[in-house]
Each structure stands twice: as C-alpha cells, then as structure tokens.
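Batch manifest line 147
LIGAND: zinc ion
JOB: complex structure
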Amino acid sequence: MSELRELYQQLIIDHGRSPRNFKQLPDATHIKEGYNPLCGDELTLYLREEGGVVQEVCFEGEGCAISIATTSLMTEALRGKTTSEAKALFEDFHQLMMGHEVDEERLGKLRVLAGVAEFPARIKCATLCWHTLLAALKKSDDPVSTE
Ligand code: ZN
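JOB STATUS: finished
ARTIFACT:
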C-alpha cells in the first residue's frame, strides 16, 4: 500500500470513528432522511442555508464506516459553498465514484474516497449523503433511497 493510500485510509477511519458535525441542527432550514437498504445505512441531514449559501450542515444516523466518513467529510466540504457549488461538488464526487478523472483541488479532502470506486457495492454507501443533500436542497418530499 502506498504512503498516500495509507494516509487516505487513515482519514476515512478517523472520520468513520469520530464523525464531524454529528448532531442535530436546531435552526436547520432543510432536513432530509436518506436510506441505503443494501447496506442498512440511515442518516438524517440537517442544513442551514441563507441567501443561497450553505452555512452549516450536520447529520445523525447509523451506518458503515464508509457512509459515516463520507457524510462527515461532506458536511465539512459544503460549509460556505453556494447551493450551485454544492451541486457541482456532487457531480465531481459522482465522477470520482465512477473512477473518472476529477479536479482534485475542487474536491479537496473528499478525494480520499477515490478508492471506493474499486468496490461497486460500497459506492451507494458513499453517495447516500449526496442524494440526501440534493433532495434536501430541492425540498423534495420523496423518500431518499439508493434503491
Ligand atoms: Zn454502507
């Protein structure tokens, strides 16, 4: 295992064990639940948006290390982004999961999840929070499920 890969692995384990922004957000403007029945990952995403800018994102839930780590990294990445930047980030992340080349600078820390692309069964664990985010931003009433 290369040094970089090991570093990536460490970061995923760290975020999986002690997720950031793992709490309710009392003044959330958007709340959405997401579910990945394939793995059993469940999360509730809380988002506070003001003037088209994501001020804060928090979450609660249960799931595998990949789903928790991805959601944790996502909440950090979204803070201060406009809603269209947030959607663009989702696109970048999706490309990463497809194993495609992406602008690593734009992805920031999220690029540590590149290895997930090699495990198709885990991709849904990593994209659940993003689908939930998108539904939250759209204020969609449809349930979010990866199936
Ligand atoms: Zn999972």
